[in-house]
Structures are given as C-alpha cells and as structure tokens.
Predict the 3D structure of the following.
Amino acid sequence: MSISIDQIIERIDTMTIMEVNELVKKIEDKYGVSAAPVAAAAGPAAAGAAPVEEKTEFTVILKDVPADKKIAIIKEVRAITSLGLKEAKDLVEAAPKEVVKDVAKDEADKVKKQLEAAGATVEVQ
C-alpha cells in the first residue's frame, strides 16, 4: 500500500504541535538532516497563513476639555457628529466620551485633528 504525498500532508494537518515536533525529530534522527533551514523558510509561510488582523475600525474618544476651549470644542463636535447644541454640549461636558465609533483610520485621524485644533485632548482607539 503506497501513501501519496497529499495523504501525508492531510495526516500532518490533523496532528497536534507536539506530534509534529516529534515527527520532525524522528526525521532528523533517521535521515541525519536538520530542520533549521526548513523552519526558517516555513516561518514567513506560517505568518502568511495566520496574518495578524489589522484594525480597520477606530473610535475617537474626547478625553479632556479645557474650560476656555469648551465652546470651540462643542462647535467641532456638532460639525463632526451632526448633534444638536444640547447633545453636543452634554457630550463635551461628559468627557471622557466617545465622539465617533467604528470609523476608518483616516476618518478617525481627521476627527482627532479637528478636535485637537479646537483645544481638546483626544485619543483614537
């Protein structure tokens, strides 16, 4: 009975890391080879298989509002969020508070710059 390479790969896919590690050690011992070059080549492939997800949605948080800049910041919050005067004032007075949520990075940076230009302390998460 002959086993194909595809069948071997499928079997390796079902193995635990401990089992794969043991397999590699046995292959190294039996054939007198080292897996170091293979591991180096497999490193980037493994990274490609499970890439770190880049954050795509950001929240802009109004952290601090200086008393002398409050009116300018309320105006910016109204322009950014389309809130009414009372709602914008309540949001600014309740700092730290989310101004916008789940927006793209460029939009979050734009909002941050607008609020900082008005005098607010802002954080993007």
Remarks:
- Residues 39 and 46 are 10 Å apart (CA to CA).
